[in-house]
Amino acid sequence: MKKILSLTTSCAVLALAATSAQAQSMDYTTMQEMFGEPVTTSANGSPMRQSDVPMDMTIISAEEIARYPAREIPDVLRHYAGMSVRKHDGTSYSVGIRGYNPPGAERLLVLVNGRQVYQDFFGVVNWASIPVQLNEIQQIEIVRGPNTALFGFNAVSGVVNIITKNPIYDDVDYIQGDIGINGYARSSGAVTLTDEGLWGMRLSAGNSYERLDDNLTSPADVGLFHETDNAGDLNVDTSVRVNDSTTMRFEGSYSSSAQNSITAYFDGTIIDEKSSGVKAEISSDTDYGIVEATLYRNSLDSVYTIVDGAYGFNNDVIVARLSDTFQIGNNHTFRIAAEYRDNEDKLSLNGNVFSTSSYHINSYSGLWYWTATPKLSFSTAVRYDHAQADLDGGGIFVNGLFPGNPFSNDQYNNRYDEFGYNFGALYKLTDVDVFRFNASKGIDMPSLFEVGFQVSAGGLTYYADPTIEASDVHDFQLGYERRLNSLNGSFKATGFYQKINEFQGFNPLSTTLIHIGNIGDSKVYGVELSLDGETENNIRWGINYSYSRVNDDLNNTLQEYENLNSDHMIKGNIGYSPNEKLDMDAFLAYESDYTGIRGYNTANINLDIDPDVIVDARVAYKPTEKWTVSVNGQALFGDNEQSSYGEETDTQLFLRAKYDF
Questions:
Q1: 190, 200 in Cβ contact below 8 A?
Q2: Type and span of the H or E element at 449
Q3: How many CB atoms lie within 10 A of CB 584?
Q4: Segment (H or E) for 185
Q5: Closest to 225 (Cα-Cα) out of 303, 102, 301, 307
Q6: Confidence grade of residue 86 (pLDDT, cut at 50, 70, 90)
Q7: Distances (CA, A) of 96 to 77, 109, 351, 430, 494
């Protein structure tokens, strides 16, 4: 059987990898230099140039990331079409794609080298806990629309896939320090050890601190919050070439953070958490295709402190995955994969365990990628999930469940059998004109919180409904992209329609009883337009506009996503590099007005958030080849309310110095 890793300038398929988010042994840097554009393995399992991807994907390169005055990953994501980023305080963000961006934003899947880093108990992302430094990122891939058949759980509105540099190919050695107003300080660094492409190991670490203005306060929250935010993390990444056809990669990480935020049920909270992860994978090019095996474990100890007490979530996730990617003929690529997932969470209040909920999930998936002609290609992926959910509501209550819950333990032991698909077609009308069509059915499985959460405190009773169903998300997209050689840039337009059946959320039955289950249906439709270019004298620019309209049919008067959504977003950037030593960049982000929600209790506050403009800027100078010094600013027009739920986000100015060795 022919080797299925090949490179040709006349073929869209550059190499074949085992899974859509795992093929990290590829030398991304060399391929990008060879083809003059980013290369991805994430769209459909076959590494290819960005221009050939049959999905709505944006790839943010390491060079682009370096130009942002960013402290965290969401500071970069904010400026791309369809991305809604709202900052609650310090290091606390919510990120959504094409609407549906309340606190927590559980519909977005975030991966680091194929390992899911969202928190399973809520299905949310704590961006401060992601153990990755911006300087060690190879690229960030934004995939819009449901992609559960390709990427797995939580990929309902889209995917943010973070790929770090491979230590066997990329030598990352640096130290960096930030110091700014509001007591802000941050340090990070990395060192790489390698042996002539046979093996490589990178150690990286970071720590940040910021003094806060007691923001996010409703009458019920006075005196609750930290006066500071801080976060730290440590990561080790090792890659080994066993022989010409087999590579192994090992990753381990630890992070700790303390931050002010807002819970998924709209209460102000302090989040104190510690998380760790370990991952091992092996990839081998065999006579039967490229076979990959992956095993990882995520462990999380998180405490959410609200006015009613401290709620603890102790979550352990183990994932084992096996796949085989093979080629039949020159135009047909196939991948088959199986995955097992064991997920357990213990819920406690003030240190006393309430209940233990768990998921045991078997998944099977397949992919067929067909290059029908040099101009036309198709990608079809399917996935089947069998899930068993269980709840042990023993804990501190004599009757097994908290008083007021109308259900029994046995009713919470449920089974889910779900099927999803992703279809993509790409047609090259000319050498510069490309059309894309996508259709998909994504599956939003209930999180452990939605499967088994139960608590009664502070006059409020929350309980998960054991009859909760998985949400079906049907999505259709049509896109057009044209390369504009005269501008050294491109124009892109995408229209989309999405229908969500059996939306999962909160349904307040009274002022004291909150039901967690299916709350009805919703749909969103819209358009995204973008234009960018670069002049001969090194002036780069770009602008994009996003319109998304959410229409709800929900039995919930508080959690109406059509009111939580900003219908209009405008993003822009301009940069200038007069020489190799100096870079200047400015970024603008606008989101139209929306309504924020604070709390489901008697202190509930609905806040009308006015539209505002966020302007970030960076000026960087390289006095020597190894030193880079930059002045950075965020929210330069002063305090604004757009970025958070009714509270001001302070202007931030900081000086950054980086030394590469």
A1: no
A2: helix 448-452
A3: 17
A4: strand 185-194
A5: 307
A6: confident
A7: 10, 10, 32, 34, 17
Instruction: Count Cβ atoms below 10 Å from residue 280 Cβ, excluding itself.
Output: 15
pLDDT of 6 reads: 36
Reduced to 3 states, what is the DSSP secondary structure of residue 423? strand
| Other Cβ atoms within 10 Å of 459 Cβ, number | 10
Quick one: CA dihedral 444, 448, 452, 458, positive or negative? negative
DSSP state letter for 166: P
Tokens read off for 230:
């801080």
Question: Where are the chain's structural domains?
Answer: 28-660
Q: pLDDT of 391-447, one tens digit each?
A: 776 554 444 456 566 777 778 788 899 999 999 999 999 999 999 999 999 998 888
Strand residues in 413-488 grouped as ranges (E) = 414-428, 433-444, 454-457, 460-464, 471-484
Q: What does the alpha-carbon distance between residue 94 and residue 126 come to, in Å, rounded to a whole number?
A: 8
Greatest mean pLDDT range, 151-155, 213-217, 320-324: 320-324
Q: Which residues contact 442 (CB under 8 A, 6 or more apart)?
A: 145, 146, 147, 148, 149, 155, 156, 420, 472, 473, 475
- Among candidate residues 616, 618, 593, the one with its CA nearest the CA of residue 606: 593
> Which DSSP letter does residue 5 get?
B
In angstroms, the Cα distances linking 147 to 116, 152, 156, 380, 386 are 14, 7, 6, 11, 18
Among 598, 593, 592, 590, smallest CA distance to 645 is for: 598
Q: How many CB atoms lie within 10 A of CB 590?
A: 17
Q: Residue 405 is encoded by which pair of tokens?
A: 């819950």
Q: Report how far residue 101's alpha carbon sits from residue 83's, in angstroms, rounded to the nearest whole number.
A: 9
Tell me if 123 sits within 8 A of 117, measured CB to CB. no
Give the residue, 603 or 174, on which the prediction is more confident: 174
Which CATH architecture fits 28-660? Beta Barrel (2.40)
Average pLDDT of the chain to the nearest whole number: 85
Can you read off the two tokens belonging to residue 362? Answer: 């078997």
Lowest mean pLDDT among 52-61, 149-158, 303-312: 303-312
Q: For residue 223, give every residue at least 6 positions away whose Cβ sits within 8 Å of its Cβ, in sequence order, or none.
A: none
Q: Which of 533, 535, 529, 538 is nearest to 484 (CA)?
A: 533
* Spatial CA neighbour of 494 closest among 550, 549, 436: 436
DSSP run (H or E) holding 76: helix 73-77
Residue-wise pLDDT for 490-548, tens only, equals: 999 999 999 999 888 877 776 667 778 888 899 999 999 999 999 999 999 999 999 99
Contacts of residue 645, Cβ cutoff 8 Å, sequence gap at least 6: 86, 88, 103, 216, 262, 266, 596, 597, 598, 607, 609
Q: Are 59 and 139 in contact (CB under 8 A)?
A: yes
The pLDDT, as a whole number, for residue 572 is 96
Query: Average pLDDT of 156-165?
Result: 92
Place of tokens 């409020």: 460
What is the pTM (predicted TM-score) of this model?
0.91
The two three-digit tokens of residue 345, written as one number: 């969470």
